[in-house]
Amino acid sequence: MTDQIRLSRVPEEFLPKIVTVFREGYGAAALRADALAGLTVAIVALPLSMAIAIASGVGPERGLTTAIIGGFLVSAFGGSRFQIGGPAGAFIVLVSACVMTTGIDGLITATFLSGFILIAAGLLRLGTYIKFIPYPVTVGFTAGIGVIIFASQIKDLFGLTLTAGEPAEILGKLEALWAARGSVTPQAVAVALVTIVTIMAVRRFRPHWPGMLIAVVLAAVGAVALNLPVETIGSRFGALPNLPPLPALPVLDRAAVMAALPWATSFALLGAIESLLSAVVADGMSGARHRSNAELVGQGVANIGSALFGGFCVTGTIARTATNVRAGSRGPVSGMLHALFLLAFMAVAARYAAYIPLAALAGVLAVVSWGMIEKEEFWNLVRGSRGDALIILSTFLLVVFRDLTEGIVVGFAIAGLVFIKRMSDATGLRQGELPAEEAGFTAGDVLVYQLNGPFFFGAAAQVGGVLDRIAERPRIFAVDFTEVPMIDSSGAKSFEVLARKMHRRGGRLCIVGARPEVRRALQAQGLTEAEARYLPDLAALKDCIATHG
């Protein structure tokens, strides 16, 4: 009873979806459906979790730990009914850079801190705004990440030996890989090709089968049976543990926190974007609606939990979430069960993972990276308009050649400028008609103009000069605001300045048909009745003309 009272006090937007599912009624049939969906997702997540961890510069066991602990907590505390959490390909670039800069301990500290940033973002209701990342930005940075992931797998795809290490920066990486072209291992190339072809063939002819797992198992069995001289998980990382480590606090002294904080902020930003995009995809597939702020809080809890067990960044994963929906999931229990199935694999069969060739996992990530580059959407945006082309190309190029966070921030800023320009162009000003002679004035003494569209700072800069020139002529200048849905402080201030100029010349500004919220905004900037007349419609303008005369 006490728990029910406590839950009733939690605002609905912060309530985990699992509470909603249990309130609706959860029976044996739903549990069977969730168990099947959870097993299906676990089969997909198993090779991906290890591959993403290895590509990120950490051991495969950390990928499994992240999927187990983080995946369980995302489903238990998140705001999406179908979200599957775990390590994501989008984080490979950031995680590998963080490991190179701060080491594994720094990565765990950054993951831990990012959890608190995500919780704070959720409690501050920032999830409502993070969902508004422009589509060209998301397509651009996803494509950029896909290119970087593929570049990071070239070494294992071809079995190259780099004596001086592999640079993080993509141009330096490609230069080093080209210099090592003489060390290509044909057997590794064959394993990678078999893996890629198997995945694509299964997708084509048996789309409901776990193509990635089948391909990895086939590659491992073939490599062992033929005694191929290829690098494996065991030869690089040793045997995998049978269980995640016991929980322990990361390093949290002042120096460690200051070094990890920039990475934590980047993890939180990317995690928020990725998880909410995944939740939106799940909503579109299922017809459900996620709670964005609860989702951020759940992601925060999951990252804290993952870090305590030695894992790294957790986020909602689009491919695994979509698999969960297609597999018939009824709610978050399937995500929790997927984590338990992974735990069971780790306990029973972790030792067999040592035989998996790294070339096979590179092949898996090559397929994933190719899928991340939404080629048709990318091309449609490039050729759609100059504004969208500028946004997507700027984001893409900055992500690939500079920095992921920089690409998102700059892309978002350019998208904002393009939006301002488009909204400014949508604001129109045209002359209306009034039989001014009836009031005793000549037609040039009274002018009526109609303003259409939102009047904000961008439109004020574009239309303001025109209004000033028009207002130099008439005794009475009436502006019809009937079709103006909103006005910001900049737009309102421009009319206050206009009214004062007319008042000094003995003229009068009339505001016609302004909505209550528009009128309040104008008055807040000093445009009172002493400066201008507020009229309900154009019919009342004749009385205003007669009074002014």
From TrEMBL:
Gene3D superfamilies: STAS domain. InterPro entries: SLC26A/SulP_dom, SLC26A/SulP_fam, STAS_dom, STAS_dom_sf. This is Sodium-independent anion transporter. It is found in: Membrane. It comes from Fuscovulum blasticum DSM 2131. It is a multi-pass membrane protein. Residues 445-548 form the STAS domain. The chain crosses the membrane at residues 35-56, 63-84, 90-120, 132-154, 184-202, 209-230, 260-282, 340-370, 390-420. The keyword Transmembrane applies. It holds the Pfam family STAS. GO terms for biological process: transmembrane transport. The keyword Nucleus does not apply. Keywords: Membrane, Transmembrane, Transmembrane helix. Its main location: membrane. GO terms for cellular component: membrane.
